[in-house]
Amino acid sequence: MPYRIEYQKDHKNAKGEPAPWAIINEDRNEVVGSSETKENAEASVRARLAGEHGGFKSGKR
After folding, report:
1. Is 41 helix (H, G, I), strand (E, B) or coil?
2. CA–CA separation, 57 vs 17, rounded Å?
């Protein structure tokens, strides 16, 4: 699923804390997460994409 990160000045997370970097699922055009920093939002998107594509693999057996 494609995601985009969008700054939304007054956005808050589920706990009511400031989290202006919204992660938006572009297929459904809905906020699926948010972070206090852009870097954390980007890391969250990477983790979501990895999970959708089989997760992280260490290369060890």
Report:
1. helix
2. 33
